[in-house]
UniProtKB/TrEMBL annotation:
Organism of provenance: Vigna radiata var. radiata
UniProt domain Leucine zipper with capping helix: residue ranges: 150-206
Record protein name field: Meiotic nuclear division protein 1 homolog
Coiled-coil zones: 85-146
GO biological process: reciprocal meiotic recombination
Localization per record: Nucleus
Domain annotation Mnd1 HTH: ranges: 16-74
Length: 219
């Protein structure tokens, strides 16, 4: 024997609406959860189903005192559906008008662009120019590293990096001197610590690199 198929969400919505329409009364959620199973809607899903009806304006909801009541009348539902229909009909008409405008614009744009030998030749020339433009861009990219402006920017960036590195080097020397002055008894431990973090005897300021002539780079 096959298992009975459960109700779909739309079927559950219809069943819950029947409860409202048949009674035309006001209900608490707990009351609806008890009445739902009589229509085939399990109590655990009643809350979500009713909320979906509220979201679609098919069921009204209001708080009176500390209680929240739900209700829906056939006349109210009919008015709501008519409002939805009018909105959809208006949207459809607007879409039709927009479509007609686009068709008219398309026809206007096609004027003067009819297929002809002259137009085909012009299109071919355009494609050839575009291809040549792309080839020149690729060729130009090869010489980008020798661009004087790019080289100057690189040289300035190197100078800034050197200055920054030496500024931090100066800070490190200052910190080492401060440690030596304030913790003379820990000299050996400090020296071992410096070596562990990479501060060896050859640690020093970075020498300024002599500017590279642009001509040498080009060669």
């Amino acid at each position: 024997m096959s298992k009975k198929r459960g109700l779909s969400l739309e079927e559950k919505r219809e069943k819950m609406l029947q409860i409202f329409y048949e009674s035309q009364d006001f209900f608490l959620l707990k009351e609806l959860e008890k009445m739902g199973p009589r229509k085939g809607v399990i109590s655990q899903s009643v809350k979500d189903v009713v909320q979906s009806l509220v979201d679609d304006d098919l069921v009204s909801k209001d708080k009176i005192g500390t209680s929240v009541y739900f209700w829906s009348l056939p006349s109210c539902a009919g008015n709501q559906l008519r409002n939805v229909y009018r909105k959809l009909d208006s949207d459809l008409q607007n879409s039709k008008n927009r479509h007609a405008q686009l068709v008219e614009q398309c026809q206007e744009l096609r004027k003067g662009r009819e297929e002809s030998g002259e137009r085909a030749e012009a299109v071919a020339d355009l494609k050839a120019v575009e291809q040549q433009h792309n080839e020149l861009k690729v060729e130009l990219e090869k010489y980008r590293d020798n661009d004087p402006a790019a080289f100057e920017a690189m040289r300035e960036a190197i100078a800034v990096a050197q200055a920054s590195a030496n500024r931090w080097t100066d800070n490190i020397f200052t910190l080492r001197q401060w440690c030596s002055n304030n913790f003379p008894e820990a000299k050996e431990q400090l020296e071992n610590l410096y070596k562990e973090v990479g501060l060896t005897d050859d640690f020093d300021y970075l020498e300024l690199v002599a500017p590279i002539p642009l001509k040498a780079v080009a060669e």
